[in-house]
Every structure is written in structure tokens, then in C-alpha cells.
Amino acid sequence: MQFQAGSAKVDVTPPSTAPYLGGQPRHSLFLGVHDPLFVRATAITNGETVIVIAVDSLGINNSILGPGRDFTAEVRGRIQQQTGVPPTHVMIASSHTHSSPETADFRPFPDQDWLATFRDRIVQAAREAVESRRPVTVTVGTGEVLRGTLAINRNSHVYPGAPPEDPEVTVVRLQGDEWSTVLYHFTTHPVYVQVQPYVSADFPGVTSAMIELSEPHCQAALFLPGAAGNQAPPPDPLTHDGSRFDEENNPDFEVIRNLFAHNERMGMYLAQTALDIPGETELTGPVTAAQRTVQVASRSLPDRGPFEAELIDRRRALADAVDRGAPRTEIVQLTQLVQDTEEVLVAIDRGTDPIDAEVQVLRIGGLALAGLPGEPFVELGFELKSMSDDDRTVLPIGYANNYLGYLTHPEAWDTPVYEVSLGPWTRIGRFGGQQLTDTAKSMVDELWTTPNE
């Protein structure tokens, strides 16, 4: 049976009422849009149908719609109503661009109307992808960027030898009659233009746009993020010393302009690398999916009391500074201290109950996309990639179907790294990342031993 596939691309650029994560004070509003954000979706059928959705987003925590609601479940439910594709077969992967609305639930999101629009546009892209399916061939190929150019281990100081890094680029091409779609997989943080006040898809936006212009008949180029929890691009040697904001929290537009120029160069380099990778292997076999929700242990948390007292003191100091007309520099510094303590309290107030975490694997012939609900460290990604052989290619997909913060390998908790520090970005404890990875590995094997093989 021949594969069928369809794709769609829908604008999800936010309004000015959607706050973003970067900057100090944090959770500020955007000044404008540098480049639009999109949701891209591809539906792939061979017997069963799976839908791969790639969103220009920081990450989507499923609680952002409020108590008792689940963002991914609502998206999947609407997709099933409109297409018949079951929820287990729909993967929503965020690119993790930091110049997008703060949907990771570090704080309550103020613009619920936009979140509903955001949800519905994701559903729209999935529906249009299903409706546009046609016969295709599917190929996969791999290559690499030059080591040290786009991805380095940002925690290199804690490794006794060479730190693990992943320069591999994997490209999946779906090609029909005057029609094509590209899925490309790469492992690094999209943070070239983080902590600046303009909406941007960061390097995946540049890369996807260039592929869509350059690949013949390309309808959409979907960025699939790898295990990038501790992987980041190296700083631009021409601009890395420049601060995005001055001491009064005014943006430095020259620095920001230079950052966008560097982002353009790096995004185009990744695009050209992907375009040059041939389709080495044609995929054959079934399309199917597996989904499992497991409970993982939360991180341990300190007592709330001292931080609550600290917040009262810091808020009082900020109010006093405002009342006496203190310099703006001082008010910015005091505001930052207030927000730092507020974010610790956000983490503490989530509590230490076990966390429900979804693991999902999509099988597309000889390709397995193993979705994890957060930021897996590259060590965990390599465990999944090591399952690849002549019969299958296994790719870890981060930021999939939820955002639960960093998913570390256990040894990271014995080192002084940011990813295990106290904050809303670290919700899962020492062994949770390994538990979720092991679950994904067993699910991959199950999909290769079922009767429809």
C-alpha cells in the first residue's frame, strides 16, 4: 500500500497582549513582530493515519487553559471530531523558540481568548493536512552540520572529557506529483534571538522558510526538535558581549539587529545542510502509533515559608522605591528580585505529587518519532537514537504534547547546572527523564513487533 500525505501551514503570530518569557523584568509584552510564527502539520497515511504538528512555540504546558482543562487533549479531541484521526495518533511538537508567547505556564497566561484561537488554528492546520492527502514516496537521509557551529553542550564545564554533542541533521522527504513536504530534525536550543522584545521563530523560522522556497513544490517544512535540553548554539563572536537591554530595561536595538542577522546566517546554514542531504533510504511499512501515560516523581522542594517572607520583603522594597521616585535602574533591579522569588514560589506551589507524563511514538514505515513532554538531555536522546539500525531510524522529539521542563539524565543532579535549579523549568526529579526514555524505548520495540509489521 502506498503512503499518502498532506500538509498545511497556518499563521499563529500572537497579538500584543500575549507576554513573552525573556527580558528583565520578565513576562513583558512584545514591542512588535520581527517574523511570523506558524503551525505546520503533516498527515501521513498507510492504513492508519498519523498527524505530525510542528508549532513555533516555547512549549505548551497542558494546564494553560485553566483548572480541569488540558490543551493537548482539547486539540486532539477537535481533530478527531473533524478528521476521525484518534488522539493517540496526533503529535504536537513545539520548536522551543524563546521569542514566542510564554505558554510553558511559568505564570498564569493573561490572554485566554488568544489561547483559544491558538488552539483552533492548530486544529485547522491538522484538518487541512488530512484533507489534502495524495500519494507520495517517503525517504530519509542524514548528515551533519560542522561541529561547534550550531550545537554545543552548554554544560561542558561539568564533563571530565569531551561533552556529548549532537550535530546530526535528519531529513524526511514526502514527495508526490508536483508536491512535497520536508520534516527535518535537529538538536539545539532556538535561542539566537531570545531575551529581546520582538516575536520571532528564531532559526527554525529561517530554516523552514528557506527550505519551503528551495525544495521543489514544498508545501511545508516542519522542524522537529531533538533532545536539546543541554544543547545550545555557541555565541556569535561578533555580538555575544552586547546586552539586549540596558540597566533601565530599554532595548539596545543595534545589538538586537545584529542578533537577528546572525540568526539569519545560522538558519540559512542549517537549511542548506538539510537541502543537500539526499533521500538515502525509501521508507516502507505501516503507519501506526502508541501512547502511554506514566507517573514520574516530582523534584524535591523546600519549605514555602522563607520564600514567602522574602517575597513580602522584596515587594515592600519595590513599593518603597516607587513611592520615593527612585531611579529606574533601581526599580528594574528590585522588580527582577520580586519576579525571581515569585518563580520559585510557582515551583513550590506545584507540590511534590507524582506527575502524569505522556510518552508517544509515531511509526511511519521505518521511522520512529519518540515524543517526550519536555526538554530531554542529549544523553537520553542518544539512547533513543542508538536503537536505529538497518530496519528503522529512531528520533527523539522534545517538547511533545506537554511542557514539563527539563528531562535530565540522573547524573546531572550531582553537578552544578542550571537545568536542576529551583524554578518552574525543573518539575521532574532525578530519575524521571530516564524513566520516560526507557518507556519510549520499549514502545518503539513494541511497534516493531506487532502483527501489522
Give structural notes:
The protein is an alpha/beta fold and 453 residues long. It folds into two domains: 376 residues, no CATH class; 45 residues. Helix content is 30%, strand content 24%. The strands form six sheets. The chain has a five-stranded mixed β-sheet, covered by helices on one side. The chain is globular, with a radius of gyration of 22 Å. The model has no long low-confidence stretch (mean pLDDT 95). It comes from Lentzea flaviverrucosa. This is Neutral/alkaline non-lysosomal ceramidase, N-terminal.
SSE inventory with pairings:
Layout: E1 4-11, E2 32-33, E3 38-46, E4 48-55, H1 71-83, E5 90-94, H2 112-131, E6 134-135, E7 137-144, E8 152-153, E9 168-176, E10 179-186, E11 198-199, H3 202-214, E12 218-225, E13 231-232, H4 253-276, E14 281-282, E15 287-296, H5 305-323, H6 328-349, E16 355-364, E17 367-371, E18 375-376, H7 378-385, E19 393-397, E20 406-407, H8 432-447
Parallel strand pairs: 2-11, 4-5, 10-12, 17-19, 18-20
Antiparallel strand pairs: 1-3, 1-6, 3-4, 7-9, 7-14, 8-13, 9-10, 15-16, 16-17
Main attributes of the structure:
453 residues; alpha/beta; 2 domains; 24% strand
Main sheet: strand order? 5-4-3-1-6
The count of strands amounts to 20
Range of strand content: 15-25%
Computed over alpha carbons, the radius of gyration is 22 Å
Average pLDDT for all residues? 95
How can the largest sheet be summarized? 5 strands, mixed
The helix-and-strand class reads alpha/beta
Share of helix, binned: 25-40%
Distance between the termini: 13 Å
> Could you name the ranges where pLDDT drops below 50 across 5 or more consecutive residues?
none
